Amino acid sequence: MTIQGTVTLKQGRDHSIKRFHPWIFSGGIESIQGSPKEGDWVAVQNASKKILGYGHYQKGTITVRVVSFSSEAPNENLYSAKLKTAFRQRKETRVLSTYTNSFRLVHGEGDGLPGLIVDLYQNVAVMQAHSIGMHNDRQLIAAALVETLGSTLDAVYYKSQSTLTVDSQNEYLYGMAAVPHTILEHGNKFLVDWEEGQKTGFFLDQRENRRLVGEMAQSKKVLNTFCYTGGFSVYALQGGAEQVDSVDSSERAVETTRKNIVLNGFDAIKNESITADTFDFIKDKKGVYDLIILDPPAFAKHKEARHQAMKGYQRLNAEAMRIIKPGGIIFTFSCSQVVDRQLFYDTVVSSAIQAGRIIKVLHHLSQPSDHPVSMFHPEGEYLKGLVLFIE
Q: CA 349, 353, 354, 359 torsion: positive or negative?
């Protein structure tokens, strides 16, 4: 790895990097030596010229994403070492088991690799870059994945076309695998298409929350909104739900939901899969459902959109609270990183006031252990959820 420049911090602006926060902001930089290009490796030093770490340079508010908090320059073993640590954590926390063969192997800053996501679908690693630096190093990362996972790995698929501002080809960097691919999650089967599906193909971050839905769904009529490929729907049926209605605006996603229902041995009649806008669908469904799941896409992807997003969350939750049966349960989520836990909670409270019903919080939900959050980078917590009891 060739170091193309050195970033010198202003006097007294080295506190965050000493606390292992991986972002160097432009406002804290005194000068930049050399002529680093977007994605190049640079050293970061304090005002006294002491090297504090190395990372990927980029233009913008976040100027460096620190990958190594060491005074020694990184070498070709860096990615292998980081991946092995991440894989060991997943094994030690029992994410991987006889009943679950798919999980997130790399969760960006939480695993010390800012700008990188790697999801493992049984024997296929799907890699997504969110920084030019990780894009530039994609071949090194693919080689490190092969070294770390060995003969259990059949393919590495690189999927960053939608996450980068540079030209990026979605392609196999190692091997090849057919899609859709069947994975196991707590014994449930799901079809995953990493080539055409959203994100890396499946939303692994809801695994434990899906299991909780299954535990609470017995004998209930369930509505799964923004269902994508039916993850919550399958768990609800597995948990003994009387009826599950799955709603999504994408016909492709709804068709995959139907396939996943049959794949798990359920009669498709027990799950009506509907292509519709969620807001339109629920407005005339008062008193129909005992359990409603609200898992919308990120309403706010940046701070400028946050105000409008909160209006969307408020409207969605208020409508669900209005129509659900007395004694019903709502699972409600936000995956918007710019919406913190308190803001989401306060918005749901305002929805409850608007709906005029007495509501209790049963659970506070988050992302699972294979989506770790560094204590020094709380921004890594993006998934917030509440389980509500509606009197």
A: positive
